[in-house]
């Protein structure tokens, strides 16, 4: 899986994400002068192994320039942050289904089940407003329902190879 971030300063954003991404997905950073004006349609969820680990990840991210973000999440057990260039990401509470550094790549979708099925991978789980697929190795690819209007720009993109 490859995630591409558009950025006004690709080396700085790459340095930030190198602290958290591990080697489970390929991150690519490309230059763009387009301003960030809305919530990204795609974001990364980082996994944690304990409440203390979750707090440590959040503290490290904040020290490296991340900020807390409110995307309408209300009272949830995960922490929503923005990286130094405004891209949203979450630090999840411990969940056994997420053993890696990156728990999931999350994509907003009007029809999560159809989006998951369109990947060509088997749908591993689905429910009210979400559907998930998972390769044999690496993070989940999760689609969550949104009624948000189509984004003006897609500053973060995901590319996932067709199943073999």
Automatic annotation (TrEMBL):
Signal peptide extent: none
One matching Pfam family: Glyoxalase_6
PANTHER family documented for this protein: CONSERVED PROTEIN, HYPOTHETICAL FUSION PROTEIN
UniProt-recorded name of the protein: Glyoxalase-like domain-containing protein
InterPro entries the UniProt entry points to: Glyas_Bleomycin-R_OHBP_Dase, Glyoxalase_6
Record-annotated Glyoxalase-like domain positions: 3-92
Classification via Gene3D superfamilies: 2,3-Dihydroxybiphenyl 1,2-Dioxygenase, domain 1
